[in-house]
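[audit] Reproducing an earlier prediction to check determinism. Same input, same settings, fresh worker. If the tokens differ from the archived copy the diff job will pick it up downstream; this log only records the rerun itself.
[audit] input (330 residues):
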Amino acid sequence: MSKIPAMRSLLIVVVTSLALASSAVAEVKVDRVPCPGDGQCVRLTNGTVEVLVATAIGPRIVRYGFPGGDNLLGWVPETSVKTDLGVWRPWGGHRLWIAPEHMPRSYSPDNDPVDVQVNGRTVTLTQTVEPRTGIQKILTVTLADTGTGVTVGHRLVNRSLWDVQVSPWGLTIMNTGGTIILPQEPYASHDDALLPVRAMTMWAYTDLSDPRWQIGPKFLRLRTDAARAGSQKVGIANRQGWAAYHRNGQLFVKRYDWQDTATYPDFGVNTEAYTAGAFVELETLGALVLLAPGAAATHEERWYLFKDVQQPPTDDALHATLAPHLSQTR
């Protein structure tokens, strides 16, 4: 019996497998498109979602959404803060900052172009070293081959000549009109749980009687209200590893890790929620570390997006709604 037909069949299988593998990777398309405002953005899309990262400012992620659909990220170019280091602008979208928050250290302007490197479905944005802080910020954005998953890597590098204590801080300005959803720790009765299960941090302006808050046994919610200009903020030690934002039937989920042995900023929290008027921000923090010259601190978020998701008023109903979506983000 000739071995040639068998070898041809094997070759066809190998070639077909390689073609399928190649097409899976090729599903992520990377190109350049206009940014909100001015300049060019690098766009990554796999046909299900698209991500835009700015090149003229930042590092910034300025869009995350379904093609042709709403942008879940907010854009606030008119906002600015005057500091001893210059005029800082939040611009919008997702940024990398230095925690604990300090004026002016955290507000070093990032209004100049960034170095952009594209490697397959990963874009790396590298800022020049901040002249006064000695910190260099690097943001990596990787889009999954399929689905809505995006991995966002945050990296702070100490380029100064002395040790600095920092925490990588990922802040996402969300598109207004929605609600931040934070998980409570699982319920246990007083008979079974005598010790506290997490820290909760409040600021001098935090008012939990404000109607923008909804506090339940399973979730802590903070909604935007353009008519209420006063600031509201809270931080939690979030061991559940997720936080979400719901707006117009779309659910944005961040996943990130909690380290039991780590020290976190702001009295030990790794998740913060903030709003003032129409402005709203969902924030996560990495471990607080002492960086030697040349060393780096890192923090990772993993993003997911779902459509046609309702937000029931009761905690039990919301839990039932979120559970199948959260199970897809692990």
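[audit] rerun output stored. Observation attached for the diff report: The helical segments are 4-26, 265-268, 315-326.
[audit] end
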